[in-house]
Amino acid sequence: MAFGDGPDDAALQSAWSEFCAQLKRAGGQVFKDANPASGAHRVDAFRFLTQNLGQAFDLALETRDTRYPVLHTFCGPTRKLGGDCADFTYQQAWIDGRSAYRLTGNRGTSRFFNVTVHGPRIPGPGVLHEPFGDTPEANLLGHQLSVAADGQFELYIGGPERGPNWLPTTPGSRKLFIRQGFDRWDELPAHMRIERIDMASPKPLPAPDAMIEAMGWAGDFVTGLMADWPDFPFTYGGVDADSPNAFPDVGATDADRKRGRAAANMYWELAPDEALIVEFDAHDGLWMLTNMGVFFNSMDYLYRPVSYTPGRTKVDRDGRIRLVMAHRDPKVHNWLDTQGFERGNLTYRHMLEGEPVALGTRTVKFDELMGALPADTAMLTAAERTAAMWERFHGIRRRYLL
């Protein structure tokens, strides 16, 4: 059998050719002005694209049927997107407002836990590419979840109200989004699964029209992510590309408050002989800082010290926390590795108790760094740095069951 013998051959081939053309156009965005010309930055941009190419059809086809929902791990150590925080895990499931679903599993011990029903996406200026752009309709935080003594829980989504764990949906509901936020390396992730309650038949195989639609969605996804990052947060997200190395005020939109967090993002540039000190008061709640690349993709948090939380940070005697961003190890405990990148973005999140704080910054020469830090600054030997790397490595793998 040859091309043209099938009634859908021409439509399928045309859709595939267009997807390939979109992928090629997406690759051209690697060389945008925002991305430096160094090999490290060019490679990171292509990794950003190829990592998300790997999930394009998971989102567009394999998990797309809302009658047969699947929890899809959106980000991880080998896939970064959307200003992802190194100490969050992100999962989503496509749902609809007509069906009723059940989410079951073990709560785990993550300090922050959040399940959110997202509503319609309205494309237009100021709206991020798929699968973003929707807003929370209903929200449940960890302290609101009724959990058995052994950690087991059952949460219903949609359908008639069921107590005590239930989230309503609307006719426009389209996605379930689950975030877990971790503080210490020994915290355990929730183990969960989702199902449509009234499932009565096997999932049908995709028809040609579903495959064609998926190719179009995937093509828009890869072009959208390469076009929108970092342009979108620079234009709409409060990130000031014209004032590097200074944090804007920490803020929370209505959508942020529904998600239970406040956020701020700082664009940074650092010369080879410079270091950046980020300092703030130690404060209540779960806060996290993650160093990210140009495309707002978290750095290599499986191996490198690119993220910090309260449980893993040293506090100086004056009650201040000082993190040192540098291209090479300054032997300071609170070192933020840059991976050798000359520019990137640093994101701050605050959740749970207390209030977010103002974050100050100072750029200094690397050789003058110790004179700019308190005398009691916590330091690490080479052996202690290696031990910290192993602790991080085991902790991250535990979160993702790697």
TrEMBL record:
Location of the DUF1214 domain: 92-178
Source taxon at top rank: Bacteria
Pfam families per record: DUF1214
Protein name as annotated: DUF1214 domain-containing protein
